Amino acid sequence: MRKIVAASFLLLHASAAAQAQTAPFDMSGERPQGASTAPRLTPPAPPAATPPVPVTPPISVTPAPARPPAPVAAPITVLPPPAAQASQPGAAANAASQPRPRDIRRYLVPFSKFSLGGEYDRRSWSVYLTPEQAAAKASFTFAYQNSIVVAPEASALTVYLNNRPIGQQRVGSADGSSAVTFEVPSGLLQPGANLVTFQAEQRHRTDCSIQSTYELWSNIDPAGTYLSFAGGNAAELSSADAIRAIGVDGAGRTEFDIVVPALEQPGTTKPLLRLAQGLSVLSSMPNQIVAFSTASLPAAGPGKLGVLVGTAAELRPLFPRLPPGAESAPLAAFVTDPRSGSPVLLISGPSWQAVSSAIDTIVSPTDRSAGVRRDALTTERWSAPNAPLVFSDTRIALSQLGVKTTEFSGRRFRTSFNIAVPADFYANGYGEAKVLLDAAYTDNVLPGSHIDIYVNDNIASTVPLTTTTGGILRHLPIRVTMRHFKPGLNTIAIETILMTKDDAACAPGATATANPRFALFDTSEVHIPDFARVGQRPNLAAMSGTAYPYGRAAEPTPLFIDRVDADTLSAAATLLGQMAVMAGHPIAVETVASPNTIGDRDTIFIGSISQMPATALTQANISTASQASWRPVADPQPGAVDTDTAFEEWNSKVSGGILRSRITALREWLGRSFDITRSSLQFIPGAEKVFTPSNADTLMVAQGSSPLGGGSWTVVAAPSAKDLREGLEVLTGELNWSQMSGHITTYSSKTGKIETVPVTRFDFVPSTPWSISNYRLIAANWLSTNILSYASLLVVFVLLIGVATSKMLKTLGRSE
User: In 130-191, where do the E strands start and end?
Assistant: First the structure.
């Protein structure tokens, strides 16, 4: 009996101990050690006071709350800090049920489409991060899909942050898009610019030919490529960082949404356009648009910044709880949008004069005197490093242009870098640059291999590799014609085609060879010689490259806008913002109502074609009849005849049509191969033909001279204000902006094509002090592009020399 009682006693004691050691699953927050498990009453804490909107002139910031604000009736309500919320009754019990702060997502790809092609490809650009984002725990995610012929076992994508590899992924996502995430090491990110690099090394599954390398690609999805920052602190922005760190959305675009209740009032246009340019220069993103409106702010999102501009009285209906300082002094402050929790730039004051002063506090750091010369074009937001601006004889090492020493084991190696030249560059007829190449190749490389140099995707030089014993090239000079250079940014690519006996046999596994057969060293240099410098009018390529001549103006540029509405002003702001990025500073403008008040200055006309002054169209050589005839074409009706198609059909029917087409083909071949055109065979350039835009075109940019010939007039027109806005949003994109050149550039929204009308007659505009050497270079380039004039002058000089020699011999010789 005693044994039974003792056993029962021990069993009860063990059960009690087990209950003490194993507590039931608790959904409430964690308890500190030693705390009692019995519930205790907590006295209610007094409600926290609503913090006021901070104002620190000239620019201040209101941090975004750590968690989204709860919906309330008041227009703006700032929640108490998280510590105050946790002290309220029931906060500990409800801590687990509260949603965790969402990770902040920062999209990274500044392009609408991003692809890495060939056997080797490397792309770099910088992303601006705030101090809060740089300090937060981060992860890097990218989504990609590759060609089905890419061999996964021999191909890899590598991601670098600030030149440090953070992860490598085997390329094996041919069936669909795959997402890859890498953790970012702590301390790697830094406040300010951070370099992002994608590098692809790809090999073909079965083919060893050069042609097969063009089938290799990996597409990176911009919407699936981003940095994720843990916690809500990464959403906090400081004054300058909020603009520079605006970033892009999932399509690679950046948008400034500016709400101005008094948009159409006189006197607001000039400060608003200055603000738009300042925001564009601060962010320096490649695909920026500016959208004006008079109502509430559009929905917030990545790559967007909302801006409220107006006097305190004008903004109070949209933002009732304005900071107190807005009614007494200029104010530029960041406040929090109560609907989205995103920062909004608030610019206000008691009057529009005060608003203009507040705008200057933001834009003035970007101002630069027209006489101060830049050393580089700002391209790092889409192509790092910045492109050095070359004005005269210069040698630059490839290491300074972002090219790394690379050992390559494939068949086609390609790398590229950027160099910029000024707007008055004039050496496309005779100029020659040099690539001083440091490279090496093995004895496996067969004769017939070669090194090609491309300028803006046009082949400029080819050097064959003829030895069979390999070799080391030390500063091998490769002459590069400058005929494909243009004012502004120029991309130079080095491509090496390597052929070997192993590739000819293409045994199984030969595509994945790991033995290097070529090496490019970053000690290679690019030598740009002295070139002719003189401005040309008209020259849309110079305007797109460096905003010439408006970026050099010492006085405000006259700007004619047919009407101040949301569409037209948005189009003007988007255009001027892109020009300001190319110029490196905002362009001062003054609005004019009539061309009669402009005089002989450089001017921009922007608006719908029907409201464009006839004088401006005449000076740009645009038919004035287009004001009534240029209308967007609707879908073709059944039975409608296309004019171009009908003309080609009749051209083939008429006698001599086939002969004419062959002559045209020959003329085009001479132009492509030897740069011989009809204009180069003329003594004097012919007159410009009057241009009439097609009804398929939805945007036109044309440039001509002012009535007295002392300035450049640029006309930006479209059939309607809506077409103007939509067309400029496309044309100012990074991929399209560089295509603007010649005398006239048109864009069609239906076909997506950008077409140009070349310049047939232009005027020289002196841009540098007079010098014999520069004028000699100018004459050399002009004669190189007008070969008939050159040949005629050569014959004349030969005759003169013959006559002079004959007379000299008669005088000095012995007569019988």
Answer: 138-146, 156-161, 164-170, 178-183
Kind plus residue range of the DSSP H or E element containing 60: strand 59-61
List pLDDT tens digits, range 554-595: 899 999 998 889 999 999 999 999 999 999 999 999 999 888
Distance between CA atoms of 754 and 745, rounded to whole angstroms? Answer: 7
Q: Following CA atoms 382, 385, 390, 396 in sequence, which dihedral angle do they give, to the nearest 10 degrees?
A: -140
Find all residues with CB under 8 Å of 295, minimum gap 6, and list them.
259
Distance CA 129, CA 161 (A): 13
User: How much is the CA Rg of the chain, to the nearest whole Å?
Assistant: 33
Q: Which residue do the tokens 């988007």 mark?
A: 574
pTM of the entire structure? Answer: 0.83
Query: For 722, how many CA atoms within 13 A lie in the half-sphere containing its CB?
Result: 3
Write out the H or E segment, with its range, that includes residue 670.
Answer: helix 657-674
CA 277 to CA 658: how far, in whole Å?
Answer: 53
Return the bridge partners of 105, or none.
Answer: 228
- Asked whether 405 and 519 are in contact (CB, 8 A), the reply is yes
d(CA 746, CA 697): 6
DSSP letter, residue 70: P
d(CA 785, CA 483): 10
Q: What is the DSSP letter of 297?
A: P
Of all helices (H) and strands (E), which one includes residue 200?
Answer: strand 192-201
Tell me the three state secondary structure of residue 123: strand
Q: Name the residue among 429, 432, 425 with its Cα closest to residue 785.
A: 429
Could you report the per-residue pLDDT of 696-719, keeping only the tens digit for each? 999 999 999 999 999 999 999 999
| Residue 627 pLDDT class (50, 70, 90 cuts) | very high
End-to-end CA distance of the chain: 166
